[in-house]
Fold:
Amino acid sequence: MYVLEGEIALHMDGAEHRLGAGGMALAPRGMPHAFIVTSSVCRLLCLHTPGSAQAFYWNASEPTTRTDAAGVVDFDRIGESARRTGATVILGPPPFSGV
Structure:
């Protein structure tokens, strides 16, 4: 995951990290992880091998035009996309602190 613009909080391997523009993280297969956008605008480049998660992201994501506070995450939508596509397993809500 490479941050092109903005900032995310990434929770992986029991630790939380902040990544800004130019930041990069690697989540090995099977490593539980989660991220949340913490800036008003964010663009990410995510590479998956094998490339089998595109349908999950298209169905789980909803672009926004909001420039104020972050929107509410629809975990039901994310979970349904995971079940329908089989691309990932949702273990639970992300464990972010203070985000």
Notes: The longest helix spans residues 75-85. The longest strand covers residues 7-12. The beta strands are 2-5, 7-12, 15-20, 33-37, 43-45. The two ends are 20 Å apart (CA to CA).
